[in-house]
Write a structure and sequence with these properties.
The protein has 2 domains: 182 residues, 3-Layer(aba) Sandwich (Rossmann fold); 68 residues. It contains 10 helices and 13 strands. With 338 residues, the chain is an alpha/beta fold. A 7-stranded parallel sheet has the order 3-4-2-1-7-8-9, sandwiched between helices. Strands 10-11-12-13 form a 4-stranded antiparallel sheet. Strand 12 and strand 13 form a beta hairpin. It starts with 5 loop residues before the first strand and ends in a 12-residue tail after the last helix. It is 41% helix and 17% strand. Helix 3 crosses helix 7. The radius of gyration is 25 Å and the shape is elongated.
């Protein structure tokens, strides 16, 4: 009978500590392949492979595209690339960002659900916001197993809380309980039958692999909404599968509600700071013109007019700055999961 031989793990803030507790607790002859996405800065150098390798004899690998996947090996995503799992190989792509991240947890989880169905186990560890929730739902829909680190055990509980809220999770546990659970799940025979692959899952899994959102049918995923993609300003559709509302643009960028709100909030803040910059530039120009008028003798009272306009500009600047400094961020952690 079939066994669960693909374990996909997603982590963000606080995830290094969680992974450094989980991976060394797995046996060297672990029966499954483990693929890990940890959110990384696009231009950053991750030392996660070296950190995890210190305390385990299991090979910890930063794979290349097309590398075979083997049991008892841990494959770690590299910066600015999605880590995906194919039938028997690892795929490394630069497909559209999901939830403002590449690598994205949802992209990895969806690829495991799409190609491995009931053989996949999805694990959500410490992190903020909600990357991984939609992908974990896809794993569960296809007959796989959903595991979430207990929010009380996680350094940051946003991602675990989101998954618990939106997905019919099979196990919520501490890191210490997770390793023996994974050993048991990967050695027992599967009794859960896989669900057929939905057209929506196929489209989204292939977008991460191929990056051709419009050609693959992204506009079939839901109705068009009046918001544009913060990344590319493309048309967006409302994707609502299993109670996990999300958005995708026609080029393929994907957002949960929380990540879209965080991005829109950041854009609005940037716009306000740009407004302050523009007003202050006008103040500097007015002050420069007033100084030149004084040096020229200012026979027409131009200096006073320019000084008055500069004062008015300063007042406008203070109003905008006060709004920036006193407004509470509407993107703080996940909505409804605190």
């Amino acid at each position: 009978m079939a066994k669960r031989d693909i374990v996909v793990v997603g982590a963000s803030a606080g995830g290094v500590s969680a992974l450094d507790r989980l991976v060394p607790a797995l046996p060297e002859d672990f029966a499954a392949s483990v693929l890990v996405v940890m959110h990384l800065k696009p231009d950053g150098r991750s030392h996660l492979v070296e950190i995890l390798q210190r305390n385990t004899r299991m090979p910890i690998i930063r794979p290349d595209d097309g590398d075979p996947i083997r049991p008892g090996h841990v494959y770690v995503a590299q910066a600015d690339h999605h880590l995906l799992v194919d039938d028997h190989t690892v795929r490394i792509t630069r497909g559209p960002k999901e939830n403002r991240n590449r690598p994205a947890i949802d992209a990895l989880f969806r690829s495991a659900a799409y190609l491995h169905g009931e053989r996949a186990i999805g694990v959500i560890l410490s992190g903020v916001l909600d990357d991984g929730t939609a992908g974990l739902w896809s794993i569960k829909e296809r007959g796989g197993v959903a595991i979430v680190q207990s929010p009380d055990d996680a350094q940051y509980g946003g991602m675990p809380k989101s998954a618990i809220l939106c997905v019919d999770v099979d196990h919520v546990c501490s890191i210490e309980a997770m390793a023996p659970l994974l050993v048991r799940l990967t050695t027992e025979s599967i009794v859960r039958k896989p669900a057929p692959v939905s057209k929506e899952l196929e489209i989204e899994a292939r977008i991460a692999l191929e990056g051709r959102g419009l050609q693959l049918g992204v506009m079939q995923l839901g109705p068009v909404v009046p918001y544009t993609c913060p990344e590319c300003h493309g048309v967006m559709v409302d994707v609502n599968q299993g109670g996990v509302p999300r958005f995708r643009c026609h080029t393929g960028h994907a957002y949960s509600i929380n990540n879209l709100l965080a991005e829109v909030t950041a854009y609005a803040e940037d716009s306000l700071w740009n407004g302050i910059r523009a007003i202050e530039e006008s103040m500097m120009l007015l002050d420069h013109m007033a100084r030149r008028a004084r040096e020229a003798g200012d026979s027409d009272g131009l200096c006073a007019v320019l000084a008055q306009r500069s004062k008015e500009a300063l007042k406008r600047t203070e109003l905008v700055r006060q709004a920036l400094l006193t407004s509470a961020s509407s993107s703080k952690d996940t909505l409804g999961n605190d």
